[in-house]
């Protein structure tokens, strides 16, 4: 309980720091939202009036406090660019990005854990060597590039999906999921490679330890030792890693959404940054940060379930 | 060991948040390649295509896949309220949904729209409009003279706010004469006021124009989603020639690299403003329409900073730079040379003779530089918005050309917002390469910004002769005389070498061969109502 309260407060502090960072960042980078919105045809007076309406003429601290208090009241403000409440604008987009992150996460687990076990089990075998080399290559390819390759190979040559033919979940759920498969693969590929490598070395480390010898001496065969004893211990660092991966996937979707023309949260984020649409950027960053923090919280809890020896550091 | 892991994870999760924030903030400084069309850079073109179809071909009989057209657009339709929409990329799409009292046609004339008749008093002070009989809004209600007054008043800031259309500050009053007539009375006479009355007429009864757009155009609004799409459907009660295609989806294509893939893959039927490199990658599934962008591309010079405050230096640059060479390098020779601040679609004002004011002559350029006191040349910076590849490429060719006269040009690419605030607003620059467009069908849309007292004069250009000629052009109501004065303005700009004028850029539109009928406008317009199935 004490732990949860502590975690709750550190979450709040982190979010405040993040929001302040974003706020300050926008004060450092050049660009005036009013000018951006009105373009080169507008009169100086109209630009000034619009700045006034947007509240941009107030001092930084006043603006921050105003934003912060209304955010606490659940009001994320109004988009400068779209003239509509921010919440309504992004709420429809969150499921798109989250679905993609979850799909690539499941894909990572489903592929990497069996592969990791197989490579460790047959250390230095043909399978192990092939996978290790393939892993090196895949890890070196950035997701945007594998995204373009996947679009070209599976979209243009094999015609397994229509590039840019995204269908929203509000229209057709199954088409929506089908379109997201290849983007998820693009996100998952390097993560799979990393997880396999991690699990393999973690398993091999554990296999060197004393309890493994004991387990063998009690008459277990290799599989028995592996699944009943070694795997459980070897999974602990892997779970930490997977938790970080899930968070990274939410953030990593920024690039993939561009490559596959997916109108998710990241597309809005990027457009809002170049439009200097601060209220939208603030809201989305707060959302992404909150997701990352919550995921880490879950990792801690799963930790305790998998290994009761762990007490969370006080 | 394990505890250590737990603690390290706390640090790394914080690190990740910080990194995410940084990535996001930094990407704000990078270029968005698909290009945000600001109202500065407009395109549309000399009409090179003509439509031969008839109006009653409406597509009930058309196969299902042809009753829907998917158009890729580079910019999100963020403003659904037409009076607040400023981006050229937004206005070109809203053209299909909204109409003004008058509207432009493909050959550059103003044709009656919501008004069926226009009457201009002899002194150019009173504009009287007759409301088109029986014209309806998309919600089915009839357009009334009150709606017209409401729309004009909203744009001129009749409630005391700043006018949304700055020229509307010249309106003294909008008067309803009877059920079908409205007059607009100006404070000072203006014979070029009509092109401004393309501002959308919207219903006064609509309480929420920002989310529920209602107009009178050939297409009516269905739905839109940020960064995703803008969907319209044919308005069957349209007063004029009805559209052919029933459903039109404008799909936001933020990533220019994906455009070719999406066209080839079949998720887009049409995209405007492609580069010649993109066109080269397209298969024969598409018809390519070639026009011009209708903009004045130039290396704009800050006439107030050294050495550009000396007319000889500016002229030397003009002699050193060859527009043809730039066109050859940037777009395989496509494009039209210009010699002053007017593009060729404005046939009335465009004077091809001005293209020869400065023919490339390196010796002459060197001599002028020596006269101005720079025998060994000088160094300056060209600031270019990075999202416009064609302007960046042009700047690079210019930098090469200037080496011949000993001038070193450093190219600084900046993000569009930085360009807007530093270069355009604060005039804190030496030279820049961009393109200026005309927002209305009038020469003053391009020429007003060169007056020494204009707040839009980012060049710091100052010429008493120019100010006088421009004032004469605006004051007179005789068209021949007006044209004469505008031509004089253009000549002064050319002779004074206000800027290094280069070209009107080429524009390519790809349209799936299943459809036909794309038309270029001399303004920023995508007229979807003219597109029809090809059979």
From TrEMBL, chain A:
Protein name in the entry? Peptide/nickel transport system permease protein
Topology in the lipid bilayer: Multi-pass membrane protein
The membrane spanning regions, by residue number, are 12-29, 94-117, 137-161, 176-194, 238-260, 280-299
Q: What is its main location?
A: membrane
Cellular compartments per GO CC: plasma membrane
Keyword Membrane, does the record have it? Answer: yes
Q: Where is this chain's protein located in or outside the cell?
A: Cell membrane
Q: From which domain of life does this come?
A: Bacteria
Q: Which SUPFAM superfamilies match?
A: MetI-like
* Entry's family note: Belongs to the binding-protein-dependent transport system permease family.
Q: Where is the ABC transmembrane type-1 domain?
A: 94-303
Q: Which UniProt keywords apply?
A: Cell membrane, Membrane, Transmembrane, Transmembrane helix, Transport
What species is this protein from?
Answer: Butyrivibrio proteoclasticus
For molecular function, the Gene Ontology terms on record are: dipeptide transmembrane transporter activity
User: Which interval of the chain is the signal sequence?
Assistant: none
TrEMBL record, chain B:
Coarse class of the primary localization is membrane
GO CC annotation terms, alphabetical: ATP-binding cassette (ABC) transporter complex; periplasmic space
Example GO molecular function: peptide transmembrane transporter activity
- Write the protein's name: Peptide/nickel transport system substrate-binding protein
Q: Where is the Solute-binding protein family domain?
A: 110-456
**Domain of life assignment:** Bacteria
- Can you tell me where the transmembrane regions are? none
Listed A to Z, the keywords are: Signal, Transport
Q: Does the keyword Disulfide bond apply?
A: no
Could you confirm whether the keyword Signal appears in this record? yes
What the entry lists under SUPFAM superfamilies is as follows: Periplasmic binding protein-like II
Q: Where is this region: Disordered?
A: 36-55
Sorted alphabetically, which InterPro entries does this protein's record hold? Peptide/Ni-bd, SBP_5, SBP_5_CS, SBP_5_dom
Gene Ontology biological process: peptide transport
Q: How does it sit in the membrane?
A: Lipid-anchor
Q: Where is the composition biased (Polar residues)?
A: 39-55
> According to its UniProt record, which protein family does this protein belong to?
Belongs to the bacterial solute-binding protein 5 family.
Where in or outside the cell it occurs: the entry states: Cell membrane
